[in-house]
Amino acid sequence: MVSDFAVTRSIDGGEGLEVVPSDVHVDESEKVVTLTVDPVVATTEDQSVVYSVSYKSGTPVAAPAVTVVKIPVISNVSIASNNADNTKAMIGDTITLTFTADRPVYKLSNFKLNGSNPDSFTNVGNVYTATHIVDEGDLITGEPASFQINVKDDAGIYSQTVESTTDSSSVTIIPKYARLSNIHIYSSNVNPSIANLGDTITVTFESDEAVTKLSDFKINGSNPATFVNIGNLYAATHVIDEGDKDGNATFQINVKNASGIYTPTLETTTDESSVVVSGIALHLATEAVEYAEDTRLQDDVAAAKLLVDALPADVAPDTSKANLEARLAAITAPVISNITVTSNNANNTKAMNGDTITLTFTSSQPIEKLGNFKINGSNPDTFTHEGNVYTATHLVDSGDSVTGDPITFQINVKNEAGIYSQTVEATTDGSSVTIIDKYARISNVKIYSTNADSTIATDGDTVILTFTTDEAVTALGNFKICGSNPNSFSNTGNTYIVTHLVDSGDTPGTATFQINVENAQGIYSPTLEATTDGSTVVIQ
């Protein structure tokens, strides 16, 4: 009887748990008893199982350990489609499910891909692949396709059912769109990989069903000039014009099928064909130069120069860019720079009758002076140059008014081609010259002593200061020698002699002086405190 036997089961050395036999069988010899118990459920790990049996409360007897082999372990589960977007699949696409098993396995009948038996089930080593060709039976739900991996090993041990990927991959069934293939691009040029102005670029492709062109179907950014088909072979064209840019021609194939389903945009050929658009930039630059040559307007010249400058450098023997640059140079107005104005007056920002005002500037090219080139309203007295540095002078005379404002000038020149510069009326360094009232010019300033050594003066010696003026002058109250008023102030014509008798009140050292005079109009000359010949007198 079953109740006569007590059975315990220990798994992996754990505590023995009682199990109740479901059947007892005694053989004919009545010496061999077979007990039937519930099986140990296989897991993902091998299990060591030990049974102990006692009869009528006798001493338990342990059987040798037996191993319950683990179930097949499935890993590296991934799913993908052969669609251009491998996360999507439509009718005709193949969904591929791959996984790794830890031992050889065989597909069970409940192994499914989106509810269907796999179309193929193969393996390379322990890597298994199951495929399913999408057909009308695959519903469009917006949800990822389902699968159930169910396999068994050689011992008939079943794996657990696996229904999710380990890499988060998924495939969703989508409506069928037209499949495009054999995409090719070429030009009508002798060299089909190059397109110049007026050449026609053609894009061809095949479709597995009838399609119509969408508004965003473009070739090089433009709508196709034509779009035709013969059966499932389609061709779209574009004629190269001035709106195209140099470089690789682009395209965007955008079509829909009779059901209104859009094919994903395609922008590359399947045979690596390509077309390079060239000569457009050179054509536009040439046209711009020709226009500027006609108008001679500097705004047009500047616009043309931008296009010419943007051209790539010439590669021998091509001299296209250099030729255009030369043509532009011939019609480009001189550019005036480095403009400065100065006077030869002791104060080079002032000028009076008899002073010379000098205007200098640099020109970007050889030039000649125009009739409206003026300095303070007068034609230059001289106009010379060294290289591209030009100098114009004006001798100030009674016609130059004393206004208190800087003098004016207008630089107006033309180049050898007769192209006029823009009128320039301001310096680039902020320099300026202002006309002032005429004062006496003082020159030949010299100082000496009556001492035997004319560079030394002691008590009783006379220090003599001489200078020349260009007009009659009188001494001002602040005319000094050695800090004192002169002992005498006389002249012979325009040569003036001023003296000072040295006495004990003079401070030893270099004698000082301040020449301060005014002319007949009461205009003061600037104070002078140094000789023009370097002479000095030391008081001892």
From TrEMBL:
This is Uncharacterized protein. It comes from Desulfitobacterium chlororespirans DSM 11544.
